[in-house]
Amino acid sequence: MPCDARLFQSIPLLASLPEHVRDAMARAMSVRSCAAGEVLLVGGEPCEAAYFVLEGAARVFRDAPSGRQQILTRIVAGQPFNLVPALRARGTNHASVQATVPSRLLRISSNDLRELIKRFPDLGLALLGDLADKLDHLTNLVETIALRSVRGRLARFLLDHAESGQVPRRWTLDDIAAQLGTVRDMVGRSLRGLADAGLIDLNRERIVLLDRSGLELESTQ
Question: Angle at CA 38, nearest 5°, toward 36 and 41?
Fold first, then answer.
């Protein structure tokens, strides 16, 4: 179905564009609905489009030759995905993407995106800003992985994502592992270690932070 530029209000990158650029983008975009579990992109296949999440969430992953899946990141409403390969002529999808809940997406073909960037420098600058933010995140992640243990990175994650002293269980082990640059088994062991040390309490609905000072100390290790 066609796109209405008013939908861009929920997507910071698009909402920041001048009105005439938003109108041009809207004419080139379409709305796609998808079910939970639906695979949206397959890694290694030719890139046909970039997407912006209007509602819902998705996971980005790669399949190892052993058959094991590595979750790379989690995408939520307001965020784009598959931008980098869409900027390249004959680019390929870097990873697979699967909706984790019923979702609505904005889709723009790779060719249309590149043509609009040529016409509107403001769009190119906005995309560069988004990519720069992602590069900063990856740079910080590499530094953190090099200098801190998984347990220390997990302690920092819990402190940063706590809401009133609790971390909701909407973060799965795979989600947390993707944020920390590790695997779910290591996250599970580290959570149990922090619980055994009396720093957190684990239950089905949330992770309760019992000792913030202790977690702050752990986060430096």
Answer: 135
- Please classify residue 139 by burial: count the beta carbons closer than 10 Å to its beta carbon, then call 0-12 exposed, 13-18 middle and 19+ buried: exposed
Widest distance between CA atoms in the chain = 58
Tokens 């290790």: give the residue.
221
Q: Helices in 11-120 by DSSP H: which ranges?
A: 12-15, 19-28, 83-86, 110-119
Domains belonging to the chain, first-starting first, are 5-137 (2.60.120.10), 148-218 (1.10.10.10)
Q: Which element (helix H / strand E) includes 89?
A: none
- Give the C-alpha separation, 74 to 184, whole Å: 14
Strand, helix or coil for residue 46: strand
Tokens in use for 32?
């796609």
User: pLDDT tens for residues 143-155?
Assistant: 777 778 889 989 9
Residue-wise pLDDT tens digits, 175-210: 888 778 788 889 999 999 999 999 988 887 788 898
62 has a pLDDT exceeding 90: no
The residue among 140, 139, 132, 108 whose CA lies nearest residue 22 is 108
Task: Flag whether the pTM goes above 0.85.
Answer: no
